[in-house]
Known about the structure:
Elements: H1 11-16, H2 18-25, H3 35-71, H4 77-85, H5 87-109, E1 129-134, H6 147-154, E2 157-158, H7 159-165, E3 172-173, H8 175-194, E4 199-200, E5 206-207, H9 209-215, E6 233-234, H10 239-243, E7 250-252, E8 258-267, E9 286-296, H11 301-318, E10 323-327, E11 339-347, E12 352-361, H12 365-369, E13 373-375, E14 383-385, E15 387-395, H13 396-406, E16 414-415, H14 418-421, E17 429-430
Parallel strand pairs: 4-8, 7-13
Antiparallel strand pairs: 1-10, 2-3, 5-6, 8-9, 9-15, 10-11, 11-12, 12-15, 13-14, 16-17
The protein binds one RNA strand through residues 2, 46, 49-50, 52-54, 56-57, 59-60, 62-68, 70-71, 76, 79-84, 87, 208, 249-252, 371, 373, 375, 378-381, 383.
Amino acid sequence: MPADYRSMFDIKWIRENPEAFDLAIQRRPGQTAMSSQLIELDHKKRIAETLAQEIKTKRNALSKEIGVAKALGKDVAHIIAKVSESKNAQVSAEMEAITAKAELNNVLADLPNLPLEDVPDGVGEEDNVEIRKWGEPRAFDFVPKDHVDIGERLGMMDFETAAKLSGARFVMLKGGLAQMERALGNMMLNIHTRDNGYTEVNPPALVNDASMFGTGQLPKFGQDLFKVESGHWLIPTAEVPLTNIIAGHLVDAEQLPQRYTAMTWCFRSEAGAAGKDTRGMIRQHQFSKVELVSITTKDASSLELERMTRCAEDILERLEIPYRTIVLCAGDMGFGARKTYDIEAWLPSQGAYREISSCSVCGDFQGRRMNARYRSKKGIKESQFVHTLNGSALAVGRTLIAILENYQQADGSVAIPRELQHFMGGLEVLEPVQ
RNA sequence: GGAGAGGUGGCAGAGUGGUCGAAUGCGGCGGUCUUGAAAACCGUUGAACCGCGAGGUUCCGGGGGUUCGAAUCCCUCCCUCUCCGCCA
């Protein structure tokens, strides 16, 4: 990463509130109190910058003198000699300032975002807190199968062929299930664009380093991503291109919020997930997802998280799939999040709720990284960094799993949720292929 | 892939080595006029950083170079546009 990438924390704030910073950062696993280290690096940086500035001030003044003297036809050789003398000192002072800045930024770039105060403490998923529940898990009069058995019996879910073509953690859907995936995406996008005010986007699936840095995948999590030979990265979520739409912009507050949705393929290397969810299509290298991204002001972001989460929950309610919503504890949140709600759909085969959506508010963390700002009032000079949010609504593959498992029937067929039937040409049930 | 033209403030668009951080227009802000608004007119208005302040530093696509001095000259990369070729 270039050294001049913006840091994601307000170092001035850390300087003024070191205890608060340390308390907050330590709620993250593996993080230690480090405000004193940061403040020291910052101090070093500012000393170096000041020195470099002083030297440059002198040089600039002399150079200007030369210009004036030359215009008057005077001899300038002695002034030029004077400037040349200080050249070495200037170069080394500049180098020192650049190095000091890079040192500080390198430390800051690896730090996760600070949890909001109302986020529960905890180190892992066992500390997450359920906040609401919707729907009654269905009572089966037979032993419910898992989505792999259901899909293969339908003759519409083929892991073997996908493995032949690509390897582990890929699947090939066929016939009715391929159609259902498309229908689900269509239904979700229709709802988000027509009812929820999101603008549909069809973004690039390959992005550059800067975009990945902006949303926080880089520099720390390159091993979770796929990279292609040209140097591009395959997006792990549409959050990356959608959020980066605002990168580098300075907008008026009236232009916010901006709400974007997209269905894209998501690509994840799943490094470090060895042995986890190996069966079936819960954890794949490639999956499709309908993503929501909101770009808001500081004051609006907390409410926007509630709104976004409701948009995601609404999809499950329309599909009549039981779910629960939990708030993640500080230790279980993603790198860039300040607060996260996970929505978990009921999976009868596991007798458990499993993640199908994750909605997060990132505060100004990403806004800082991508230098995206807004003016709070027209005519007011001061700008602030935008606040960003992202959420899945929903992960399409996992939604398909939830439908298969919740709507399965004893004879191996699968009923199609009422609201989805319209998107499948009126089809009401998927029957096994003979 | 070949040939050419470009990338400058919130936006548009001048500027080809020395008070240029940058003309002008739009937009924004303040005012005059108006019952109010619009129009017109006058004034004002780039950003980030350092500093208590005075003030200073950086920024004209990214990076490097030449020079006492670079928006301006050189190298390199990226992007956009036009034409040609190829192609879903």
